[in-house]
Amino acid sequence: MRRNLSKSLLVAALMVVLVLSVSGVSFAEYPDRDVRVIIPWSVGGMTDVLTRPITNWLEDYYGEAFVVENKPGGGGVVGSMLIENAKNDGYTIGTTSMSTVSAKYVSPMYPEMENVELIAQVITIPATVTVNADSPWQTIEEYIEYAKNNPEEIKNSNSGTGASAHIYAAAFENEAGIELNHVPYPGYAEAITALVGGHVDSTNIPLPDVAPQVEAGNLRMLAIAADERHPDFPNVPTLKEKGINLSIGNYSGFVAPKGTPKERIEILENGIKKAMEDPEIRNFLVEAGFQPIYKNAEEFQVTVDEAEARLDYLVNELGVELIDD
User: Fold this and answer.
1) Is residue 112 situated within a structural domain?
2) What is the CATH number of the domain that holds 313?
3) Is 12 inside any structural domain?
4) How far apart are CA 83 and CA 88, in angstroms?
5) Domain boundary among 207, 242, 277
6) What are the tens digits of pLDDT across the range 224-257?
7) List of the chain residues with pLDDT < 70
8) pLDDT of residue 28
9) Could you say which of 62, 143, 176, 189 has the lowest number of CB atoms within 10 Å?
10) Which residues contact 303 (CB under 8 A, 6 or more apart)?
11) Largest CA distance in the chain
12) Residue 210 zone, left/alpha/beta (φ > 0; ψ -120 to 50; rest)
């Protein structure tokens, strides 16, 4: 009887091994070789700067190389589609940002978030409400009150009609119940220069770009569009604190091709979580102007869903025409 039982258990075990082998699941510890990391942007760009310290940490943690490959082109479309079409074995991952979501509005060919598996979000780059240091508005409440009483009088600089800063401004208007006078410039630098020079009254350009002028005393940041305050500017409130339900700006996180085994996604998710708990990583990101914020795959999905819904509303309901900046 005992011998028959042993035979039955052996047969069952062999069947499990056979099923796992057919399904492509390996018993080898993952990862056990190099992991390719595709960044859809150039060397030295925002995503490149924040990704490399994290992949270096993961190399030390797993004992395998995480090989970064920059694949710029098409406003992030080229690299994002390479991630989508890569083999889904866990040995190719990549990065994503809000540009992946907005690509369908500006490019004839574009990636789809449904074609990747989310791993984890690592940073957010919040939009701001920033005014000249000599502005009469000391608080976000004063700014909004004035804007409500004087529609379209506040001149608000952006990085081009339909570009990112214009998107942030349109979303801010919608949530705050105000109307601004949008003044487009070729890019962030020109829009900030105009604000410093007093040619416009405010801007919604993200925190890393306005921070140097705020720290120099030329600009005043009234609020940020984030879920929590930024560690470098603890006295600047979030819009949500003031009753304006808006968290907008850019974000960045890791993704893998659709169908990558869940177990491997979870292993990577856990490693990235540990990396984001490292004080050196967090300090580096804060000093670079980013807001470290770890979100697991499920939480990251909420970020992506909100970005998609907001862009859809701005384009299809408010008629904002996006451009690639």
Assistant:
1) yes
2) 3.40.190.150
3) no
4) 9
5) 242
6) 999 899 989 999 999 999 999 998 988 999 999 9
7) 1-28, 324-325
8) 56
9) 189
10) 121, 251, 253, 295
11) 92
12) alpha
- pLDDT at res. 44: 84
Q: Which segments of the chain does DSSP mark as H helices, in order? A: 2-22, 46-62, 77-85, 98-106, 140-149, 164-176, 188-196, 207-215, 262-276, 279-287, 297-316
User: Beta 249-257 vs 116-126: how paired, if at all?
Assistant: antiparallel
Q: How far apart are CA 300 and CA 97, in angstroms?
A: 11
The tokens describing 5, both together, are 């039982």
Q: Return the pLDDT at 151.
A: 97
Residue type present at position 117: E
Looking at residue 209, which CATH number applies to its domain?
3.40.190.10
User: What does the H/E/C string look like for 79-91?
Assistant: HHHHHHHCCCCCC
Distance CA 325, CA 323 (A): 6
Return the residue matching tokens 């796992």. Answer: 20
Q: What confidence score (pLDDT) does residue 180 get?
A: 96
- Residue 1 CB contacts under 8 Å (≥ 6 apart), including other chains: none
- Number of structural domains found in the chain: 2
Give the angle subtended at the CA of 111 by the CAs of 276 and 95, to the nearest 5°. Answer: 15
Find tokens 């659709």 and name the residue: 258
Q: Does the N-terminal peptide bond of residue 184 adopt cis geometry, omega within 30 degrees of 0?
A: no
275 and 219 belong to one structural domain: no
What is the rounded distance in angstroms from the CA atom of residue 118 to the CA atom of residue 101? 13
Query: How far apart (Å, rounded) are the C-alpha atoms in residues 41 and 277?
Result: 25
Instruction: Please state, in angstroms and rounded to a whole number, the distance separating the CA atoms of residues 137 and 192.
Output: 18
Which tokens belong to 222?
A: 């009234």
Q: Give residue 102's pLDDT.
A: 86
